[in-house]
Amino acid sequence: MKKFVSLLLALALVLSVFAVATAEAPKKIGISMPTQSLERWNRDGSYLDEQFKAAGFETILTYSDNDAGRQVNDIQNMLADEVDLLIIAAIDGEALNTVMDEAANAGIPVISYDRLILNDAVSYYVSFDNYTVGKLQGQYVETALDLANAGDKTYVIEFTAGDPADNNAGYFFNGAYDVLKGYIDNGTVKVTSGQTAFQEVATAQWNTDTALNRAANILASYYADGTVLDAWVCSNDSTALGVAQAIESDYAGSNTIIVTGQDGDIANLANIVDGKQTMTVYKNVMNEAVVTLELAKAMLAGEVNGEELVKTFGVDCAYDTESYETSEGTKCPSFLLVPSVITKDNLNDLVATGLYVMGDDGYLKAAE
Ligand code: BGC
């Protein structure tokens, strides 16, 4: 009898351990980031990873070295590891079709993170208002040069855009170009290189050296004779870094050229302090991670009411069901955060986010 009771007790123990294990099995989240070579994705990757872990999820985080084939592989491995939800910042918005179909067949929901994946299997899109990012850059130049009151004065501008494989790049470029187009059309603004089409000014993989080389070529070909350049509209910080370097070594003139950017990368913030870059459009990616976490929780609970959900984030974010299409005619419900302009004059706004600290040397650093 004693033996029987202890057998029963042992069985009960095994069963209860099993029950606890099943009840508490954490949901698994696959986080696929494009590359560690561009500063921001390291921040996104670690913020997402930390946030999800702190909320009790298990995570798999990968970086695919800007190689679209490798990203497909990384996502396939996540599916094989039976993730419950995927968060993907695509290297190439059109290269994930097969693996997105595989996710859909396995019933795994996908959040397109920051960059839209152009496949209908995407459930939701979390990003910033990308067109507004470009618009802020264009408006900065418009105001700084006072183009609206230029009269007979003319100004000279060049453009550098992002990676054509990244769906965001066109939004940034168009946002800026649309502000400046009227001035180009009426002759107030000249683009000496004549390069104003997105494909002409694009930068594969947002690569700093590629942007530098193109800028150096333009400066050598069109500005070596002393032609004055007033502004260089760069879509983001990694390209602005290259352009600023080219200006520093190859520009013949002595005026300060307005250089725009986006992200608030540490090297660019140093350039802003040093006057080599003029502004950056800041996107608080910690908030982007928070929105993604809250959305993922709602998705896994099977209850996403976009309009209601945005009210719970505690950060400025719009629920938009019109602006983004995964394919011809299929709108992707989107959660779009709000970008802001940072210049030398309001660097302290970054310190106020808690994500940066001001060093004794006057340069910003990432907070520990
Ligand atoms: C992001 C930008 C970033 C760029 C290059 C874009 O998709 O939205 O913030 O600068 O990729 O990494």
What does this structure look like?
With 368 residues, the protein is of the alpha/beta class. The protein has two domains: 156 residues, 3-Layer(aba) Sandwich (Rossmann fold), CATH 3.40.50.2300; 133 residues, Response regulator (Rossmann fold, 3-Layer(aba) Sandwich). Helices cover 45% and strands 18% of the residues. It contains 13 helices and 17 strands. The protein has a seven-stranded mixed sheet, with helices on both faces. Strands 7-6-8-9 form a four-stranded parallel sheet, sandwiched between helices. Helix 2 packs across helix 11, helix 5 packs parallel to helix 6 and helix 8 packs parallel to helix 9. The longest helix has 23 residues. The N and C termini lie far apart (61 Å). The relative contact order is 0.11. The model has no long low-confidence stretch (mean pLDDT 94). It binds beta-D-glucopyranose. Beta-D-glucopyranose (BGC) binds next to loops.
What's the SSE blueprint?
Blueprint: H1 2-24, E1 28-33, H2 39-54, E2 58-63, H3 68-80, E3 85-88, H4 97-105, E4 110-113, E5 124-128, H5 130-144, E6 155-160, H6 167-185, E7 189-190, H7 198-201, H8 208-223, E8 231-234, H9 237-250, E9 258-259, H10 266-274, E10 279-282, H11 285-300, H12 306-312, E11 317-320, E12 325-327, E13 330-331, E14 334-337, E15 340-343, H13 348-352, E16 356-358, E17 364-366
Parallel strand pairs: 1-2, 1-3, 3-4, 4-5, 5-14, 6-7, 6-8, 8-9
Antiparallel strand pairs: 10-15, 11-14, 12-13, 16-17
Helix pairs in contact: 2-11, 3-4, 5-6, 8-9
CATH superfamily of the largest domain: Response regulator
**Biggest sheet, strands in spatial order?**
2-1-3-4-5-14-11
Helix/strand class: alpha/beta
**Low-pLDDT segments, ≥5 res:** none
